[in-house]
Design goal:
Layout: H1 2-7, H2 14-27, H3 29-44, E1 51-60, E2 69-70, E3 78-86, E4 92-99, H4 108-119, E5 127-130, H5 137-145, E6 149-152
Parallel strand pairs: 1-5, 5-6
Antiparallel strand pairs: 1-3, 2-3, 3-4
Amino acid sequence: MRLLWRIADEGCSESTLRRRRDEWIELGLMERLRDISLDAYDRLVGLELGAVAVDGCITKAPCGGEKAGKSPVDRGKGGIKRSTAVDASGIPLGTVTAPANLHDSPLLGATLDAVAKTLGGLPDRASIHLDRGYDSGITRKRLQERGLLAEISEKGKPAPLSAATKRWH
């Protein structure tokens, strides 16, 4: 709401801005704007959907909230986990939020569903790049059911890329 207060002036009050925003959302203009932006980006730059990386990160949630849970990396303080899928250039395609104490692998399906909701799905046989935390038969089966290829770093083997030399975006 602070943003509305900052852009409101004598010619347009913050309540008018709020009312217009609500009208535009109700009319579906925000969704249409998102679709136009995605189409324009795809035409001008192009998404690289043949290779997609998915991973989670934990962030602090000091005020709690509906999705917050005890953080395993911050002495049990409140935190959330964001599982995000990006294309080969690092462009975010879909994100889901969960409590911080949830493992990454159960979020894979929901993250791929978020991508499908945004883009209508991924191409058949797209490679999904995952870290060792996803290395399980269940993950491989779920990706196979979706027609996707699993590129998972295997447990007990060194990572193919050294963190000092090259990393994913």
